[in-house]
Amino acid sequence: MLRQLMLVSTSGNIILEETYRGKPRDFKNLKKTKIFFEETMLSWDSLQRGEEHVYVFSRFLYLILKICDDAVLVVSSHERETEGFLREIAEILTSAVSEACSGSINEDRIIYSLPEIRLMFGIIIDKKGYVDHVDPDRIKKILKLKNLK
C-alpha cells in the first residue's frame, strides 16, 4: 500500500502530490516532506535518468526515481512494504507518465499533461493507496471509456 506519491522537479518544486494515508496538507506531513527533501535533494541532480535511490525515513520507505533530466518520481510506503514493490510501482507510474506525455518526458510536458497523468494515477492506485490496475492494455481501455484517448 502506498502512502504518498509525488512528481517533483529537481529544484524541489512539487508538480503533483497524492497522499493516501493521512491528510495531504496536514502540517505534520508537510514538515516531514520538507525535511526529507532537504536531506535528499542534493543528490537528485547527480542521478542518471532511470536511476533510483531508496531511503528509510521516519518509519517510511521512499523511492526516488529520476524520470527525466528535470523531474523525479517520489513514491513512499510504510516500511513493511518491500523495495521491489516500490520499484515495480515506480516503473508502472513512469510508463503512465511517458504515455501521457506522448513519449517525450520533461517538466513542461508533465505540467501540460497533468490532467491525464492524474487520471491514469487514479486508475492505477485507488484512494486508499492500494494498487488496482497494472495492465497497460486495461488502463488504455479505461481511458478510452472516459473518452481521453
What does the secondary structure layout of this molecule look like, with pairings?
Elements: E1 2-9, E2 14-19, H1 27-40, E3 52-57, E4 60-68, E5 71-78, H2 83-100, H3 107-112, H4 114-124, H5 136-145
Antiparallel strand pairs: 1-2, 1-5, 3-4, 4-5
Can you describe this structure?
The structure is a single chain. The protein has helices at residues 27-40, 83-100, 107-112, 114-124, 136-145, and strands spanning 2-9, 14-19, 52-57, 60-68, 71-78. It is of the alpha+beta class. The protein has a 5-stranded antiparallel β-sheet with strand order 2-1-5-4-3. Strand 1 and strand 2 (14-19) form a beta hairpin. Helix 2 runs antiparallel to helix 4. The radius of gyration is 15 Å and the shape is globular. It starts with a strand and ends with a helix. This is Tset complex member tstd. It comes from Anaeramoeba flamelloides.
For this entry, give a set of tags.
149 residues; alpha+beta; five-stranded antiparallel β-sheet; 5 strands; 40% helix; 25% strand; globular
